[in-house]
Amino acid sequence: MDASTPLQGLTFLNTRDSRSAGQLTEKLDNLGARVIECPTIEFIAPTNWKAFDRRLEMITQDDWIVFTSANAVRATMERLWELNRPPGVLTRARIAVIGQGTANVLAAQNIAVSLMPGVAQQEALLHVLLNTLKRSDKVWIPRAQDAREILVEGLKAEGVDVTITPVYRTIMPKDGLGQAMDPLRKGQVDWMLFTSSSTVRHFFDLLDQDTLASLEHRWPQVACIGAVTAKAAEDHGLPVTVVPARQDLNGMVDAVVAYITGGGAPPAPPSGD
Predict the structure, then answer these.
(1) In a domain? residue 265
(2) Are residues 59 and 128 in the same domain?
(3) Quick one: 71 and 165 in the same domain?
(4) 214-268 tens-digit pLDDT
(5) For residue 49, is it within any domain?
(6) Integer angstrom CA distances of residue 37 from 21, 24, 41, 92, 255
(7) How far is CA 101 from CA 83, 104, 248, in A?
(8) Which of 51, 147, 154, 254 makes an SS bond possible with 126, Cβ 3.0 to 4.6 Å?
């Protein structure tokens, strides 16, 4: 095995959305893998922007803006562009994020992050927020229209004023599993990579019964970016091989390489992602 291309000869299924799949594909391709891009999730605008637009006009220095995904940042930036507002308008408040990938998207817009937990989980973000903000502070969370409620419920339970505004929705792609269906049926996929519980659920929603039957006794290896995603996979009967301790794309790819090259899968992170 060439140390520079440890994934040579292996085929990976990349289930990320079409707009961001390329980032993961490039990482795998550089390590020698063959990659089939098979988006099981797409992001579209919310039903309307009224709540977001209204809340944007109310930002004060007493605010925290919390981003729990890079997608939420991108959608927010797109809306600011549509409104002809500079990204810097967000710096009237302090910014908290769930992980480095989200912070990187903000950094590209010259927006500094005030708070980020050591572990990319809602539970960890909730903990550091409650230890940092004053109860008189107001928290604004631009996020997916449907999302986990742990952070919101935890803040509200402590009396924090929280406003949620949807900035995107998740849907299943119209093209289904496309070019991935035949390789899956023929057992030509070695690894499937999932980066959210939605990518798992949609994957199974898009599978036809014949393909599902052909896979049931010879599933590819599975890597999930975090414990919540891994649980979704296991709930659907998938044996999960790798759950990285560092819950980002680099962490997942590094963990897969470590497993394949004999280092063994790193320990799974605490529950929640």
Answers:
(1) no
(2) yes
(3) yes
(4) 887 789 999 998 888 999 999 999 999 999 988 788 889 999 999 999 865 444 4
(5) yes
(6) 7, 10, 12, 39, 20
(7) 25, 5, 7
(8) 154
